[in-house]
Structures are given as structure tokens and as C-alpha cells.
Amino acid sequence: MSKSLVSFPFKEENVEVFVNNIRAAADIPEVGEVLCVGARENECYTQSLEAVKGDPALKDSKVTFLVQERLGSKRPGKGDGMNTALKYFIEETGFKRIHFYDADIKNFSKEWVLESEKAANMGFDVVRHYFPRARTDAMITWMITKTGFSLLYPDTQLPFIEQPLGGELLMERKVAETLIKDPDVLAQSDWGIDTIYTYKMVENGFSMYETYMSSGKDHALYPGLDALESMLYECFSVIYYLQGGTGISHIKHRIEHASGVSNRVENKLGFDIQKTLCLLSEDWNEKQKSLLDLFPPEIGKKMRENTERIVFDFMDDANWYTSYRTLLENFDPGCPDWRKLLFKLWVSRVLWYTTNVALKGYSYSFRHLYRMIDGYARVSKKVETLEDLRNRGE
Ligand SMILES: Nc1nc2c(ncn2[C@@H]2O[C@H](COP(=O)(O)OP(=O)(O)OP(=O)(O)O)[C@@H](O)[C@H]2O)c(=O)[nH]1
Ligand SMILES: [Mg+2]
Predict the structure, then answer these.
(1) Tens digit of each residue's pLDDT (9 = 90 or more) over 171-217
(2) Is residue 164 in contact with ligand 1, taking CB distance under 6 Å?
(3) Ligand 2 being an ion, which residues bring their Cβ within 5 A of it?
(4) What value does the mean pLDDT take over residues 2-27?
(5) 264 CB-contact burial (10 Å; exposed 0-12 / middle 13-18 / buried 19+)
(6) What is the CATH code for 4-266?
(7) Where are the chain's structural domains?
(8) What is the chain's Cα-based Rg?
(9) Does 170 sit in the ligand 1 pocket, CB within 6 Å?
């Protein structure tokens, strides 16, 4: 069958936004079915299903609602939702391609689907959307995922994938078949799903096209960095377990040139700094303080000072590199104190970046972030030192 399945994993989203998105996807001739995979049968699930059933615009479209299966072994979350969709696509349909979109995109339109279809028609196995983001957004992507890939896999395309955690992507059927057979993918029921999909796509040598959506993604926002703690922990844990992979092939990879950025995105400086500062000084215990002995003395000492006053001015690019290496060597995913410490180290890193880089402007910030990833790859390959990283001009 030459058509595509469009899938929306969802949990508790605005019903009107979600149903609009279902309608936009179902209206596209290339789309054979829309699959909505809910976390559970909650109010959002029943109300959206009712709205779809009663909508005359959808009476000729196939829209399927499922509650996600318990497929994985981590926290039951978005990963079980996405894997349930992959499994349905392979076992219950004969469609050629599967698309994924977050359900909370307020400016979703048929363009999102059609842009992916066009890139896939050019012969790419995977198509991922990327879009302009505010300079303080995507702090897990930059400081955890891209940094981790750069430290561990500097010779591959992994560090240079624009938005490795993005939820908007297309896969050809053969990609879905490979992923759903992989026990690491199936196990990843939590926020780590995007990282494992990205990694496995590259590991299996699938070609990748990244389309640029200049309109950006307008979606529900987080109030402060504390809401990101579980996402941070789950995304870092995948990178931690991925250490030691070898022989990752060189894939065909094309990134569409980024065109415009809206004033809204360019001028936005993201999160609640006041609230975030407090996170550094809260909830310390003796175990966390002793874990800091594993870090280089100057990093351990400065972090420990946070029990008395807020300190983050030391967490520059070089110290973040060293802290990340220490985490990769010593982290214990089962230990709640390691989890808290990872979070605090990351908060100090985000605050350093916000006050030393982000305040200097939009273009300055992105130049810095891209150079940081290049620099980390060079240090990992031992062609540059941490001193070089410190001395690089802007
Ligand atoms: N099926 C399912 N969907 C989930 C679950 N958790 C989150 N989702 C959906 O996954 C999508 C992404 O979740 P968000 O909370 O919007 O995540 P986000 O931080 O905005 O993600 P970014 O777009 O990367 O910034 C949304 O459609 C959620 O409704 C879950 O446990 N199960
Ligand atoms: Mg969202």
C-alpha cells in the first residue's frame, strides 16, 4: 500500500488542539489512517474520541484510538506509546511509511506531513523535522544528548543531528521493522525513546533528511527547569547505557538550510531564572556531597558551595566536558542521589550558559552552541585540549 500512517502519541493535551491536528492529518490524500495512542483512558482520551466520532469532516476517514501497551521495562511513558504505534503499523497495516507528531502542536498543518513525504520521495529512509527554537530552549538536547554523542561518537553524524529528541519524524517501513525487532528499543518505554530511535537509525545505516520548518513548533511549555528532571534523567540514562557502541556506519545525511526565524523565537529568553536558582541550593544530603569527591577537586568544591550560597560561574564549556566524562564513568542509574546530582550539575551548566552566552543575543548563542559541539568532538579525538576549548574566540 502506498499510503502513510500518521501517529500521535498523547497523554493529557488540550482536546481542541489535538482534534484539529487529527483533522489536518486525516484530510491529506497521502494519509491512509490516523492512529492516536493514549497513555491511558483518561478524560483527554474519551473526549477526543467522542469529538472524532461526532465530526462530519472525519466520517470518511479512518481514525483509530488505542491505549498504549506495556511493552518496555523502564517507566511507562512516551516510549510505550511510540512503540505501540510502530507495532500496530507493522502488524496491523500494510502502509509504506509511518509519521509521528506530538499531539500538542498548536500550529500543526498538512505542511508538516507533506514536507516529510517530499523528502522521503527523494529516497531518504528517515525524515526528521527541525525548527528554530529560543536560545534557552532545548537545554537537554544541547547539554545532554548532543554533548553525549559528541563525547562518545565524535566520528559519526550523531552529534550533528539537529534535534535528536524531536518527536516529529517519518520512517520508511523497513526502518520501523528494524526498530521494533530491537530489544533495546522495545525496552525504552520512557522519555529515552527519542534518543534510542535516533541512535539505532544511525547504527543501522539508514539515510536521514532533516527538513526545516521555519514556522517553528508552537506547543505547551514547561514552567521551570524542575519539570524537566525526569526527562533529563531518562535521556542521560540512555546515553550512559549506549557507551561502548562500535562500528557505527557513516550514513547519508542531509540537513536543509535554516531560513528565517520569527521575532517571537529570536527575542524569547526562556525560563523562570529566579525559581531555577533555588534548585541549586535545595535538597542536598551527605551522599550527594560525597559523590562530588569523584569529580575534579575544583568542580567538586564549587558544587558543594551550593549548600550555602548559589554558585555556577565555574561551569564553563571545559568544566561541563569534564563533569560529563565523570558522570559517564561513575553514574549509577538506580541511585536517587546520583539522579539529583546530575540534575544540579545540569542546572549549574544551564545557568552558566544563560548568563554568559544567552544574554549576549540569539546569533551569538547558536554560534557558541554549535562550536561547543565541534569543540567537544575535537577534544574527544584528542586533537584539541580543554585549554583550547577555553581559549577559543567567538
Ligand atoms: N502515549 C503517550 N504519549 C505521551 C506520554 N507522555 C507524553 N506523551 C505525548 O508525547 C508528546 C510530547 O510530549 P510533551 O510533553 O509535549 O514533550 P515536549 O517536552 O514538549 O517535547 P519537545 O517537543 O521535545 O519539547 C505529546 O504529544 C504528549 O502528549 C505517555 O506516557 N504516553
Ligand atoms: Mg510539547
Answers:
(1) 999 999 999 999 999 999 999 999 999 999 999 999 999 999 998 88
(2) no
(3) 104, 219
(4) 97
(5) exposed
(6) 3.90.550.10
(7) 4-266, 272-391
(8) 21
(9) no
